[in-house]
Amino acid sequence: QVQLVESGGGLVQSGGSLRLSCTASGRAYRQYGMGWFRQTPGKEREFVASISMIGTSPAYAAAVKVRFTISRDNAKNALYLQMNNLKPEDTAVYFCAPMIENFNSWGQGTQVTVSS
User: Are 31 and 54 in contact (CB under 8 A)?
Assistant: First the structure.
């Protein structure tokens, strides 16, 4: 079982940057590809970015490609999301999770709010 804690969210103006962090407990973290997801009220959680278990093969949703960068540090059991040129439509609660089907142990997420 992997337990996840997200942090780094906040309020930022359009065009600004934030760096999200996710800390995972347990050695099992290193066995999984990891991803970032986001959710706004009334909508389903959506995929943002993912990275392989060894930190290669990053993949991004079209809406964030070029602006966001995913990375991980397996020595620290940590996952990161560098978000640049933020837009109001990026406003959401951001979650990290292993890239496995039917994952249901979500953390509390971290709120990102982008003002126009």
Answer: no
